[in-house]
Specification:
It comes from Dictyostelium firmibasis. This protein is of the alpha+beta class and 137 residues long. Helices cover 41% and strands 18% of the residues. The protein has 7 helices and 4 strands. It has a 4-stranded antiparallel sheet with strand order 2-3-1-4. Helix 3 crosses helix 4. The longest helix has 11 residues. The two termini are 12 Å apart. The structure holds adenosine-5'-triphosphate and magnesium ion. Adenosine-5'-triphosphate binds next to strand 4.
């Protein structure tokens, strides 16, 4: 089965949106097979977003992502990487479609509450960065 790495960012946990976000993935039919909560180190956050390390917002992104509790998850199911991104919505919440997590629950690009893998390759890379294989059901 296809897997995607999904993370609730510190703003999502601080705003008590963990249950809401998990419910949307579960109601769609995806299976939660890995979950943990932790405050990432800045080094871990930088590795997670290493593809963006030349962007002007990189330092702010790393600082924010490591500023509080993150719920790291693995969801499994048919086409979960692409469909998971559809559930999440566009990076900028103001450009996202109604009914998506980002449209419905947040406003700012820099506080967009959730991360989802953007390809099968990045999913495999991110799952390996956050989980040991024996932590996945
Ligand atoms: P994510 O990887 O977190 O799921 P994404 O794939 O939709 O988001 P990316 O291009 O990978 O978007 O950017 C990662 C994160 O960096 C975004 O979710 C957002 O919080 C932040 N970001 C992206 N573009 C900008 C920007 N122009 N200004 C500020 N922050 C940005
Ligand atoms: Mg991304």
């Amino acid at each position: 089965q296809e897997r995607s790495f999904i993370a609730i960012k510190p703003d999502g946990t601080q705003r008590r949106l963990v249950g809401e976000i998990i419910a949307r993935f579960e109601k769609k039919g995806f299976k939660l097979v890995g979950i943990k909560i932790l405050v990432p180190t800045p080094e871990h956050a930088a590795k997670h977003y290493e593809d963006l390390n030349k962007k002007p917002f990189f330092n702010g992104l790393v600082k924010f992502f490591s500023s509080g509790a993150v719920v790291a998850m693995v969801f499994e199911g048919k086409d979960v990487v692409r469909t998971g991104r559809v559930l999440i919505g566009a990076t900028d919440p103001s450009q996202s479609a109604p009914g998506t997590i980002r449209f419905d629950l947040c406003i700012e690009t820099g506080r967009n509450i959730i991360h989802g893998s953007d390809s099968n390759e990045s999913a495999a890379h991110e799952i390996a960065l956050w989980f040991k294989e024996d932590e996945i059901a």
